[in-house]
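From: lab user (bench 3)
To: helpdesk
Subject: output format question, protein + iron/sulfur cluster

Hello, I'm new to running complex predictions and I'm not sure whether the block I got back is the full result or only part of it. Here's what I submitted:
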Amino acid sequence: MTLGRFGLRKRDYDFPPFRPPSEANSLLLRVTRGCPWNRCTFCSMYKTMKFERRDLEEVLEDISMARELYSDRVQTVFIGDSNSLVLKADELVRILNALYSSFPHIERVTSYARARTIAKKPIEDLRKIYEAGLNRLHVGLETGDRELLKEIDKGATPEELIEAGKKAKQAGFEYSLYVLLGIGGEEKWEQHARGTADVLNQIDPHFIRVRTFVPQPNSSLYDAMEEGRFQPASPETILKETRLLLKELEVTSQFMSDHISNLVPLHGKLPEEKGKMIQLIDEVLKGLQDDVSLKEEMEARRHLTNL
Ligand code: SF4
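Helpdesk reply: Thanks, we reran it on our side. This is the complete output you should expect:
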């Protein structure tokens, strides 16, 4: 079992292999395995895994095992794998009820979810799940640009992304969206920034979290790069793209750069801290012009990080 900060493992406890950095201290609970979509061209996370829903009784057994070990110490829970909302609302409600009755000090339960799944789910179901205690959804937006969404096979249109975001917020969830800087490569950075800002402006999520695209072996975008069909964005381009994204944003979100792949540590509340973040980008862009080794250092980072 891996219980985040408790760092324990037990052979017969099944835990999600991926979780957001903000869930590092959480109890990890797996209700599905893999990704029901599994087609995004940049993603290699679950490529070798066949998607399946776990048996409900097995999940409840995991909760009861965790309760015996850690009951008083669990304050946050992350539910995996990539899209727990594929479960029926009643099933999720049973799991959430078991969590809350097992751990008296829970403050937050979160999960990954796909935008299209949220868009398709009846609002009453979303409300039921929220009211049972799933507080926050982590959703991969990646980009808001229509052409790029198609190219990366995200399986969602800008309209679906917007509908999902609005609906999730309406149901009560805290909404956390992930943007993949550099996913348009050297060629399409500007449309990526503008399209993404446009979708984000219409959703106004609670959190905007940026990650920088690092080509992953075992993904089709990596193959495209190897074959010269995709040119990864340079550090300058990624910074220009981030600058444009920030400039175009008209939201009240928390902007977070909480991932090692990112070139600049940008954190701030929008709109209040927009100017400060843009200024920091400008300083780094200037540094890149003056100092060649800084660029090399940023390029090298690509080889050290993972999605
Ligand atoms: S990015 Fe998310 S939705 Fe796309 S294949 Fe990977 S896990 Fe599935």
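A quick orientation on your result: The first helix runs from residue 56 to 70. Let us know if anything else is unclear.
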